[in-house]
Design a protein that fits this description.
Order of helices and strands of chain A: HHHHEEHEEHEH
CATH class of one domain in chain A: Alpha Beta
Oligomer: heterodimer
Number of strands of chain A: 5
CATH architecture of one domain in chain A: Roll
Low-confidence stretches of chain B: 1-49
Largest interface: A-B, 42 and 53 residues
Low-confidence stretches of chain A: 1-7, 27-72
Strand order of the largest sheet of chain A: 2-1-5-3-4
Number of strands of chain B: 21
Strand content of chain B: 15-25%
Helix content of chain A: 25-40%
Radius of gyration of chain A: 26 Å
Number of helices of chain A: 7
Radius of gyration of chain B: 26 Å
Shape of chain A: elongated
CATH superfamily of one domain in chain A: Phosphatidylinositol 3-kinase Catalytic Subunit, Chain A, domain 1
Largest sheet of chain B: 21 strands, mixed
Number of helices of chain B: 21
Mean pLDDT of chain B: 88
CATH architecture of one domain in chain B: Up-down Bundle
CATH class of one domain in chain B: Mainly Alpha
CATH topology of one domain in chain A: Ubiquitin-like (UB roll)
Structural class of chain A: alpha+beta
Chain lengths: ~190, ~625
């Protein structure tokens, strides 16, 4: 049926695929080339096409139109039947979420001006730290000296970055502050 | 033929009998006093008639007093068929005019028969217009209706429109023409913007209800009007204000002031431009609310750096809103605010989370408190697990709708047959279900049919086209067959998945009460259509898309089309020849065929068919892409 690649392999491959999007959502499949054969082989067999093949085997032969409709899987007008109002609402939500970003100010003790970063761009604390180091390395005395990255949360308290899960951090962080020197050492001890 | 005009005689010239001046104004009391003189002024069209004898006169007056108590329109239709006297009396006492298809009757004719109506419910485009299957500009304009009513119904109080095109000018005319006007409800309409709303707000001094539900409110950016500020400055009579679908921000200061001076306000549904902090202000002003649409339910970044709302403060507002029974909105919900609604969950009868991307974990603490919930709308992001939680607690659930977050054929959906089974086991009083999924089994649907025998509405949408039972690979015939067999009260059915002619045989055999049937990508041959049209005697609305039904199937319904409100078919196998034959054999049917807007109607194949009974023949506002046969 297909070129010998197992479905399990393809699923595993798909699981490691990097892509943007909410967990659990799939990017829309590219429309397959139009063909009248119901057992069309595709570059990426998925569970769905397995169902299709079963359907093709069990169903009695029917008119050509229905068969080709199944095989093409191009997006059809008005299907699934969701009101455009609802579809547009979600698109708008996704758009504003993507566009808005999660910008927070970053201040560093002794630096003449602040920076602003988009927290959504980073996957986790490691990337954030690296980005901040990169951003502030031009200011003298940074290399080698102790520093702590802290943030101000919703309640206005100064918290150490890294204690809570990343998602919780991004949703509660209002601004970042890099504390350097003696103050940092006093607070942290050896933890870094 | 149309539901409200069943008593109408077939010949065009019918006598009209209009009451004297006293007749219409005596509606106020329960037992309306009839006009003083037995010989009322009569206005007879065309011919001069003998007045009915005095005894007949009195009988009609008595009858009117009795018929005033008859509210149900189907009962009224039956009453109007008894004889001419009953027809006249019923026509004079009908207060609400329901017109299920605006093209089935003309404004002149409807308003001419029912002279004393105070309310109009009018539906326009076919339902498949919601899914972009009806080209823009097809019709269903409110203008001719409002113009006719402005002249004929000075005492009009209520208007409810669904899928009509309403312009700003129409709304302005409406606002100017009716001094007692109180209720305006617009559902899935388009053509108007904030200027129209401003006119209504300003000129309808007795406005009690302004409900805008899922309309397409278009505004050019420069033309946005601050309509909320246009309400009268004195205390208003507002009981319900819903504007979730109005996409532009509203003047919050004006809104808060409006809520503060609307002591009767019970239902308030705001749009997503109202932040949770602003919502709290509104709730403080109106603790008596019963229905609340929460807007965004998150903190929209505020320019002046206002402090963010504390969850505890928000929760206290909900504690204070002791009368809340219905919650909706949650358009951008920040999950940390969701717990604020815990205090009201136990009292909730209706909860709409269908715009909130809640996970099962976020839903559980909410739903486990909602013991009294009867209506629940939710997104499939909650998964089977979320539905299990709902099934565990909501023993009184009557209506469930599970919408897809990703409405594409190939999306992963977290709900499946497992969720359906859980719901059926937990919520046995279920009457109405709309369920979008990607994976379903016959067994699950059969289980639901056995557990939920009170089902009146069953709409299952398996989003992948032609998808069979995902475990057995069989078509979904047996599942839907079980539904029509076991759910004896079923009146509305929507089918999906891989389906053969067999399912339609079942529907025809057992679905004797089915009034509305939606079919997509189903069936093998004309047999399906024939089964349904011959077997479903109560069928009123049939909408079909992308199914292999042709002229033979279409013609098998000739005996029944006058009993239906409409038949819609697109992307089937119809030809002009078959549609023309239907049009010829049924002169009272309007048969519209159309393709896409720019295509010529030259080929014999018919892309879209919309036929409906009508008392007034072909409409006069047909756009170029529609051909009436």
């Amino acid at each position: 049926m297909d070129g010998g690649v197992g479905y399990a392999d393809m699923d595993a491959l798909k699981a490691t695929e990097l892509r943007l999007g909410l967990p659990g959502s799939d990017p829309p499949e590219k429309p397959l080339p139009t063909t009248t054969t119901t057992t069309a082989t595709t570059a990426r067999p998925t569970k769905r096409s397995l169902d299709e093949d079963r359907a093709a085997r069990r169903e009695p032969s029917e008119g050509g139109r229905a068969t080709s409709t199944r095989a093409t899987k191009a997006q059809v007008v008005g299907w699934p039947p969701i009101r455009s109002y609802r579809k547009n609402s979600f698109q708008a939500m996704k758009a504003t979420a993507e566009a808005a970003g999660l910008y927070v100010k970053v201040s560093m003790d002794g630096a003449p001006y602040l920076r602003k970063i988009d927290l959504e761009v980073y996957a986790g604390y490691k990337e954030l730290r690296e980005a901040l180091e990169d951003m502030f390395k031009c200011f003298e005395g940074c290399k080698g000296s102790e520093y702590a990255i802290t943030y101000e949360d919703k309640d206005g308290d100064l918290m150490l970055v890294g204690d809570v899960p990343w998602e919780m951090f991004t949703s509660s962080c209002k601004k970042l502050r890099i504390i350097r020197g003696a103050e940092a050492i006093r607070g942290l001890g050896s933890s870094q | 033929m149309t539901e409200d005009c069943d008593g109408e005689e077939k010949d065009e010239e019918t006598r009209r009998w209009s009451p004297g001046q006293g007749g219409s104004s005596s509606r106020g009391g329960g037992s309306g006093t009839s006009s003083s003189s037995p010989l009322k002024n009569r206005c007879v069209r065309g011919r001069v008639d003998q007045p009915p004898p005095f005894s007949g006169q009195v009988l009609e007056n008595v009858l009117e007093n009795v018929l005033q108590f008859l509210a149900c329109r189907r009962d009224r239709n039956a009453a109007s068929l008894v004889c001419r006297s009953w027809y006249r009396a019923e026509a004079r006492t009908r207060l609400e005019l329901f017109i299920g298809n605006c093209y089935a009757v003309s404004p002149a004719r409807a308003l001419g028969r029912f002279r004393c109506a105070r309310a109009l419910v009018l539906k326009g485009r076919p339902r498949f217009a919601d899914f972009n299957l009806v080209p823009v500009g097809w019709g269903a304009r409110f203008s001719p209706w409002v113009a006719a009513m402005a002249a004929a119904y000075p005492w009009l109080e209520r208007v409810c429109l669904k899928r009509m095109t309403v312009s700003d000018a129409d709304l302005a005319l409406l606002a100017r023409s009716f001094s007692s006007f109180r209720d305006l409800t617009l559902i899935c309409c388009d053509g108007f913007g904030t200027p129209g709303l401003a006119a209504v707000a300003e000129l309808c001094r007795n406005l009690r209800v302004l409900d805008l539900i899922e309309n397409d409110v278009e505004d050019e950016d420069e033309e946005v009007v601050d309509w909320i500020s246009r309400f009268p400055e004195t205390d208003t009579c507002l009981e319900s204000l819903s504007f979730e679908c109005v996409n532009c921000p509203v003047n919050f200061v004006a809104l808060e002031a409006l809520v503060a001076r609307s002591p009767c306000l019970r239902r308030l549904r705001v749009n997503q431009h109202v932040s949770v902090g602003q919502l709290r202000c509104l709730m403080v002003r109106a603790p008596q609310l019963t229905h609340l649409g929460t807007g965004s339910f998150e903190t929209v970044p505020v320019a002046d750096g206002a402090a963010e709302l504390d969850v505890a403060e928000l929760e206290s507002s909900f504690v204070a809103s002791k009368s809340l029974v219905c919650l909706s909105g949650f358009r951008m919900v920040a999950p940390e605010y969701l717990p604020a609604i815990y205090p009201v969950c136990a009292g909730l009868v209706s909860l709409n989370l269908s715009y909130a991307m809640t996970t099962a974990e976020q839903l559980k603490p909410v739903i486990l408190r909602c013991h009294n919930l009867q209506t629940f709308w939710v997104l499939d992001t909650v998964g089977d697990e979320g539905l299990r939680a709902a099934a565990k607690t909501c023993k009184h659930l009557r209506e469930l709708r599970v919408f897809p977050f990703e409405a594409t054929e190939d999306s992963e959906s977290a709900v499946s047959d497992a969720g359906l089974v859980a719901i059926s086991e937990g919520c046995q009083k279920l009457r109405s279900i709309l369920y979008f999924c990607q994976r379903m089994t016959n067994a699950a649907v059969v289980t639901m049919s056995k557990n939920c025998q009170d089902l009146v509405v069953f709409r299952l949408c398996i989003m992948g086209r032609h998808r069979p039972d995902h475990i057995t690979g069989e078509p979904m015939d047996e599942g839907f067959g079980a539904i029509v067999m076991n759910c004896k009260k079923l009146t509305r059915l929507a089918v999906s998945g891989l389906l053969t002619d067999k399912v339609f045989e079942y529907i025809a055999k057992y679905g004797k009460l089915v009034r509305t049937l939606s079919v997509a990508f189903a069936g093998n041959s004309d047999l399906s259509l024939r089964y349904v049209l011959e077997g479903c005697h109560k069928l009123q609305k049939l909408e079909i898309r992308d199914s292999p039904f042709g002229d033979a199937g279409l013609l098998s319904g000739i005996h029944h089309y006058y009993n239906m409100r409409f038949l819609w078919m697109n992307s089937c196998k119809l030809s002009l020849r078959g549609c023309k034959e239907v049009a010829q054999r049924l002169p009272r049917l309007v048969v519209e065929v159309f393709g896409d807007q720019n295509k010529e109607l030259d080929s014999d194949a018919v892309e879209k068919l919309y036929l409906y009974r009508s008392l007034v023949g072909p409409r006069d506002d047909v756009p170029s892409f529609v051909k009436i046969l």
